[in-house]
Structures are given as structure tokens and as C-alpha cells.
Description:
One of its GO terms (molecular function) is ligase activity. Helix content is about 45%, strand content about 10%. The protein has helices spanning about 15-25, 45-55, 60-65, 75-80, 105-120, 145-155, 170-195, 215-240, 245-250; strands at about 5-10, 30-35, 65-75, 125, 160-165, 205, 210.
Amino acid sequence: MAASSALVLFSGGQDSTTCLAWALDRFERVETVGFDYGQRHRIELKCRETLRTKVGKINAMWSERLGDDHRIPLAALEDISNSALTSSMAIEMADTGLPNTFVPGRNLIFLTVAAALAYRRELEHIVGGMCETDFSGYPDCRNDTMKALQTALNLGMEKRLVLDTPLMWIDKARTWQLAKDLGGKELVDTIIENSHTCYLGVRGDRHEWGYGCGICPACDLRAKGYRTFLAQEVRNLAKSLPSNHAQDGGSKVDDT
């Protein structure tokens, strides 16, 4: 296996785009994989190509490192699930205590298929945007699940695959900040303009944080995170200003 290579689970959303930038910043060869499982927000699949191109152009090193993209159909996941992400049912809490946007086994299947692909492509790391901080309680996003799955995949394939989850312990505001740290304003603007998060697949209204319905749980989480990120940016700017500038509202010209 290549000593510095990765396969990124790249859906076309904010988190996976940030993870792609994270991987490009660290590994010498990076490939991406997306899954078509009949998701309600399939428009995210159309966002992937534009996002990949734009992210790859942010700097020359990323462009050199960005390799092949893979798109894998997983229609069976839609057939066996009963979720608001694979049907037009209203988004609400289920009797299980989880939101009905939970697709049972989705990340387990994604990562297993990704591991098989990584095996064939001789890629060492698999990078995903799973997060235990800002999430809806999905059990297949938890760190314990990722650790157990990594062990199972390594045992079942007799390979040393590493599951990297760079967003696991950060909230949405810090995810926006991570994007800025990695790719500056250009990456943040690319995520705003070209990524898709909305569960309903709506691309109509342009909000300050991007496109979406503005009311589903995914839009709400993304919007709140962005506003917190902006507020922190303002606070950081205020701290960086000279004390007389902060007090007087600007610098003064000395006429003497």
C-alpha cells in the first residue's frame, strides 16, 4: 500500500468537502468515493464534480494530489430502509428516540464498500466526516463504532486500513474554521456556493451559509454553525486591533 494515500468519503456536502481538503493537506495521493443510494437529496451528487474541481484548484499541491473519483450505486440501501432520507416522509423523531433521517447501517455499508475499494486501489487511509459533537445521535457516527469497524475491517481483509474522522470531536462552527485554516476564504466560499447539505434537496434560496430549505435539521445545524463561526471571526478581529483603534473607532492623523 502507498505510505501516504487516502480515500475520502465525498458526498458533496460541507463536512465531506472539509474532509477532502484535510486529506489533500496530508496525503500524497487522494481519491474520492460517492454513493448513490436513492437519497432524497441526490442533488448532492451533482455538486461533487464541481466541488472536486474547485477544491483541487485552491493550490497547486492539492491539484497534484487529487486522484480518481469513484461513484458507486447502492440501491439496495434504499430498498431495505424506511427513512426520511430515502423517501418523502416528514422529518420527525421516531419511536426509537432517533430522528427518522437515520438510515440504519448506512455508514457501516459505506465504510465496508470504501474499504474494499481502498484495498483494490492500494490506499491506506479512509477519511469520513462522521462527528459525535454536532450530530443527531446516529449510532453509526460514534467514535466507538468507528474504532470497532476499523478493527473488523482490518481483521476481515488482513490489511492495515486506518479510518480517519477529523471532524469527530468538533462542532459545526469549528468545522467552518477548519475549512478556513486549510484553504482560507476561497475554500469557505467554495463550500458556501457549491456544497449541498439540505435533507430536502432544495437548492432554491441562497442563504449566507449556502443553499437549502433553511428549516430542515441539516440546514439549521449548518446555519447556526456558520453564524457562530462569523461571530468568532469578529471577536478575533477586534482582539487583533490596536487598543486605541478599538477605543476610538479608528486611527487618528497627527497634525503636529
